[in-house]
Amino acid sequence: MNYRMITERRQDTDAGWYMVYGIALFEGDRPVRYIPDVFLQREQALDLVECCNRLALDPIHLDDVIEDAL
Predict the structure, then answer these.
(1) Rounded to a whole number, what is the distance in angstroms from the first to the last CA of the chain?
(2) Total Cβ atoms within 10 A of residue 44
(3) Closest CA to 3 of 39, 37, 41, 47
(4) Residue 37 to residue 30: CA distance in whole angstroms
(5) Per-residue confidence of the chain (70 residues) as pLDDT tens digits?
(6) Which of 1, 36, 46, 57 could be joined to 22 by an S-S link, Cβ 3.0–4.6 Å?
(7) Residue 57 belongs to what H/E stretch?
(8) Per-residue CA distances from 65 to 16, 18, 28, 38, 69 (Å)
(9) What pLDDT, on the 0 to 100 scale, is given for residue 15?
(10) What is the pTM assigned to this prediction?
(11) Residue ranges of the domains in the chain?
(12) Are the C-beta atoms of residues 20 and 36 closer than 8 Å to each other?
């Protein structure tokens, strides 16, 4: 299993187009869980994904880790 950053383009009627970054958990090439729209900053998302992979984060803790990161 590994974690990956997912980039999405969103639109707001007032702010226009903007990018958001989510976290996905993959088993091989198959996504098994996706949490969209977690970060507005790409670097924050990449840092969290790298940390989760480096520490082999158990998926059961992903919600708590994201909450702590925010």
Answers:
(1) 23
(2) 15
(3) 47
(4) 20
(5) 999 999 999 999 998 999 999 999 999 999 999 999 999 999 999 999 999 999 999 999 999 999 999 9
(6) 36
(7) none
(8) 30, 24, 22, 11, 6
(9) 85
(10) 0.87
(11) 2-69
(12) yes
